[in-house]
Amino acid sequence: MRIRAGEGGSLRSLGLPGIGLMDQPAHFFRADPNGALDKLNPAVMRNQVAFATEMTVLTDRLTIDQLRGKAPITDADLFG
User: By 3-state DSSP, what share of the chain in percent is helix, strand and coil, each rounded to 5?
Assistant: First the structure.
């Protein structure tokens, strides 16, 4: 089995679906006197957490075949 790189790569290698939520924030890996904390924005973070929460709730309603793209997803599947 070949392990795929990146966030969730080992799970994708096993055929398990997932949602990648975070890219590699290069600004956190550089020498910065402030530790790059000035790059964080509470409003943006709140939106990201709200989005991740909503996506988790919506995808939890789907079947394995829908998550794998083998079955259609309707509005009723997502929103009841």
Answer: 50, 0, 50
Q: What is the mean pLDDT of the chain?
A: 78
Lowest mean pLDDT among 17-26, 35-44, 55-64: 17-26
User: How buried is residue 23: exposed, middle or buried, by Cβ count under 10 Å (0-12/13-18/19+)?
Assistant: exposed
Each domain of the chain, given as residue ranges in start order, spans: 24-79
| Residue with the two structure tokens 């790189």 | 5
Across the chain, how many H-helices and E-strands are there?
4, 0
| 50 HSE (CA, 13 A, CB side) | 6
**Angstrom distance (rounded) from CA 35 to CA 74:** 44
Q: Which residue from 45, 64, 65, 42 is spatially nearest to 53, judged by alpha carbons? A: 45
Mean pLDDT calculated for residue range 15-35 = 65
